[in-house]
Amino acid sequence: MNKATKGALAAGTAAVLLTGGAGTLAYWSDDATADGGSFASGHLAITPVTGTGCTGWTLDSGEAAPGVPYNPATMTLVPGDVLTQNCEFTLDAEGEHMRGTVSATPATTPTGALAPYLTVATAGLTLNGVPVTDGAFTETNDGQVLGVNVTVTFNPATTDPASMDVAAALESITVTAEQIHA
To answer: How confident is the model at residue 162 (pLDDT cuts 50, 70, 90)?
Structure first.
């Protein structure tokens, strides 16, 4: 191999080596770690105070014998009758910045032939006996009793004969506590 070829080969090899090394330029660097910490979440739950959480239905608080316990096996309704039931739940709301709303609605509409003549309403939301007009609660309400009043009204203007000697069923009332973060 002649000198010119050896020189060209050496120059090519040097160029390849320099090109490969041209991308590696070192700078000072360092790193450290910081403690990531641990985190825990709160919770939101409502539980019936006793048994089903409800007192049982009473009939017509405005009648001469107010608040008579209603027994569907032995009592029947007439147009204008109002059944009332109070339900209580313990609000378990833990967490910083816990805010939420509570509401109560029938889980289903009444079923049965009498159902079209009934109106179901929920009202009277309370926390520890204090009215909750906007349904709002915070973590300060943790452990308090959430109360709701449920009424079923037999439409007083009912004149339809199809409303006689028939029945209806109200499956359940849904009480909901929902966390919000505004």
So the answer is: very high
Residue with tokens 């019936």: 48
Closest CA to 141 of 155, 153, 127: 127
CB 145 within 8 A of CB 49: yes
Q: How much is the CA Rg of the chain, to the nearest whole Å?
A: 36
Query: What is the pTM for the complete model shown?
Result: 0.70
> Using one digit for the tens of pLDDT, what is the confidence trace for 14-72?
555 555 555 567 789 999 999 999 999 999 999 999 777 888 899 986 676 777 899 98
Give bridge partners of residue 67 from the DSSP assignment. none
Distance CA 105, CA 103 (A): 7
